[in-house]
């Protein structure tokens, strides 16, 4: 593990890189993280042109405290190499992370890592650009532990259930939604990705939910992801930002209770006690780990 930046990723907003208007709206949104897309949201005929629009947006728009990310095309395409070079050479100082699509093995991630290393040296950039990886192929899920540990630049693993469903032949009604399977058809993939990410010191994020008019369905999927330890979910439409921020944030009552429990435990610890009762709950060092998780989230999100 290395010292990785702590970034809020409760809501990762997808913005097509071919639209200056949408890029502007993304920068002005309340999302923690915005990824300017060069992949699926951009037609092949305008992918090269979209790079310059993203460069303009990174260099000229006010992004506030957002994580500024660019989703590039995968390493098997004719665009990947150019995506990295043009974006980093022209806007590298205003870029936080690169999101790599459709890796199959760790070698695909290492390719991006080495390109970034060369460019950072050439451009004398003073900040390391991070890498976020989409796990969206069956081969990637098979290799997820190796992928999670292959680069010190890695910050986040994202479950891309849309392409993953196509890769495995999963029967779903819509991207991110349940089908006829009796239970959560994505449970295993989410669990395995989250476990691999946590073991490597990375964030785990849930992917898209296609029906942006179905807020209840979105919240349900986000809650499942949070329950497994994921820290956020994609928003493919601005209407999904607020539900994501709410689901992945501890409530004011949870934060207040966590502070009370930690204070009580520390006071007991100072007296040589290993546990203390708080509102009918026994708090010991194991419970303190849950408490600290809540407090660290509150600090990161400014709650």
Q: What would you say about this model in short?
A:
By secondary structure, this protein is α/β, with parallel strands linked by helices. The chain has helices spanning 20-28, 47-60, 80-91, 106-123, 138-142, 144-148, 161-168, 187-199, 215-227, 241-247, 252-270, 285-301, and strands at 11-16, 33-37, 67-72, 97-100, 130-135, 154-159, 203-206, 232-235, 276-278, 281-283.
Question: Could you characterize the architecture of this molecule?
Answer:
With 303 residues, the protein is an alpha/beta fold. The strands form two sheets. It has an eight-stranded parallel beta barrel with strand order 1-2-3-4-5-6-7-8, surrounded by six helices. The protein has a two-stranded antiparallel sheet with strand order 9-10. Strand 9 (276-278) and strand 10 form a beta hairpin. Helix content is 46%, strand content 16%.
């Amino acid at each position: 593990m290395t010292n990785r930046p702590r970034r809020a990723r409760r809501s990762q907003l997808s913005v097509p890189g071919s639209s200056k208007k949408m890029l502007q709206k993304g920068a002005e949104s309340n999302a923690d993280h915005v990824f300017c897309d060069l992949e699926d949201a951009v037609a092949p005929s305008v992918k090269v042109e979209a790079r310059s629009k993203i460069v303009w947006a990174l260099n000229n728009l006010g992004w506030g405290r957002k994580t500024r990310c660019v989703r590039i095309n995968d390493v098997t395409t004719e665009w990947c190499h150019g995506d990295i070079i043009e974006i980093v050479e022209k806007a590298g100082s205003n870029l936080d992370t690169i999101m790599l699509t459709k890796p199959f093995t760790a070698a695909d991630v290492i390719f991006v890592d080495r390109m970034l290393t060369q460019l950072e040296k050439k451009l004398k950039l003073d900040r390391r650009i991070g890498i976020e990886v989409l796990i969206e192929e069956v081969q990637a899920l098979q290799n997820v532990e190796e992928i999670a540990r292959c680069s010190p630049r890695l910050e986040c693993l994202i479950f891309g259930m849309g392409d993953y469903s196509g890769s495995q032949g999963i029967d779903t009604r819509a991207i991110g939604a349940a089908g006829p399977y009796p239970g959560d058809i994505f449970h295993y993939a989410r669990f395995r990705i989250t476990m691999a990410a946590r073991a490597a010191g990375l964030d785990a994020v849930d992917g898209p939910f296609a029906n942006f008019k179905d807020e209840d369905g979105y919240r349900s999927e986000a809650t499942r992801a949070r329950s497994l330890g994921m820290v956020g979910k994609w928003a493919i439409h601005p209407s999904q930002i607020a539900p994501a921020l709410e689901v992945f944030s501890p409530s004011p009552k949870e934060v207040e209770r966590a502070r009370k429990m930690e204070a009580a435990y520390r006071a007991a610890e100072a007296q040589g006690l290993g546990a203390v009762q708080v509102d009918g709950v026994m708090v010991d060092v194991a419970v303190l780990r849950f408490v600290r998780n809540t407090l660290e989230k509150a600090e990161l999100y400014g709650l």
